[in-house]
Specification:
globular; binds adenosine-5'-triphosphate; alpha/beta; 26% strand; binds magnesium ion
Length: 267
């Protein structure tokens, strides 16, 4: 059987119209299926890489293939495969949608109009909310939720959908310990039960390093790609986060200590 790659990225460069080179000389391959983390500081091109993979941004050089499809020529196909949770929610909070409407969206948008939720759609939506411990909020207006609760609902929306790739851009940002643990656990469980790919952008590898198989260290180009164990390496982390970055071992576990450790958490 031929090996399928979640990502095949060759000689990629991405430039914004203002001339900023967000990514350059990016080369890597990740086998499918996987749970992978994309790790790097602010401005390192993490979101740009996901947007390029989805065909929302066109490279100035090189190529991105997602499960064999070219991000420029075949982006419509790619978008059908991907359940994307963008960085910061873009759902207008002035629209009085309920939690159930938000989660059901992932199922209804794939149907032709008129779009009605079937019993199966509702079951999938409820199951996804249960996974992040939000099932009780089914009828609550989404804008009334806290930031962490909203993030959990958006992860549930992705879990309720279909498609072999979940791409989550900083789903842990602005969440407390409880929400963070809930999201990480839900993603891990879902991945154990389904043969899907999960791609998660994060500033902090610590909460997920035992779950992920592949880690891409990014600082506008690839600093490292490999197993979490190989990437939790002081020399590599220094290249990404500067000379104060460290990997420490404590009680048999490794932890990355960087300026960004814990930034996703609000204590
Ligand atoms: N729409 C845009 N127009 C111009 N430059 C942009 C745009 N979006 C991003 N950039 C620039 O591209 C670079 C990479 O940005 P990107 O948002 O991909 O980084 P990131 O790793 O996702 O950062 P963060 O951790 O802050 O989300 C940055 O220098 C940023 O200023
Ligand atoms: Mg980003």
């Amino acid at each position: 059987m031929t090996q399928q790659f979640l990502f095949e990225v060759k000689d990629l460069a991405v430039k914004y119209p203002n001339g900023e080179l967000a990514l350059y000389n990016v080369n890597f391959r990740i086998e499918s299926p996987t749970f992978m983390a994309i790790v790097g500081p602010n401005g390192s091109g993490k979101s740009t890489l996901l947007k390029t993979a989805l065909g929302l941004i066109k490279p100035v050089r090189g190529q991105v293939k997602v499960l064999g499809y070219d991000s420029v020529r075949e982006n419509k196909k790619i978008r059908k495969l991907v359940r994307y949770v963008p960085q910061r929610d873009r759902i207008g909070l002035s629209v009085p949608l309920k939690v159930k409407d938000i989660v059901l969206m992932s199922r209804l948008l794939k149907k032709p109009p008129p779009r009605f939720a079937s019993a199966k759609d509702k079951e999938m939506a409820r199951d996804a909310l249960k996974r992040v411990n939000m099932a009780d909020l089914w009828d609550r207006p989404f804008p009334e939720l806290s930031g962490g609760q909203r993030q959990r609902v958006l992860v549930a929306r992705a879990l309720a959908g279909d498609g072999p790739i979940l791409m989550l851009d900083e789903p842990l940002a602005g969440t407390d310990h409880e929400s963070q643990d809930m999201i990480v656990e839900a993603l891990g469980e879902y991945r154990n039960e389904h043969e899907v790919n999960i791609v998660m952008v994060t500033h902090d590898l610590n909460p997920i390093h035992t779950l992920v198989q592949d880690v891409l260290l990014l600082k506008n180009t690839v600093v490292g790609v490999g197993t979490p164990c190989d990437m939790m390496n002081t020399e590599l982390l220094e290249k990404v986060y500067g000379p104060t970055a460290r990997v420490i071992e404590y009680a048999g576990h490794r932890y990355c200590v960087t300026h960004d450790s814990g930034v996703d958490r609000h204590y």
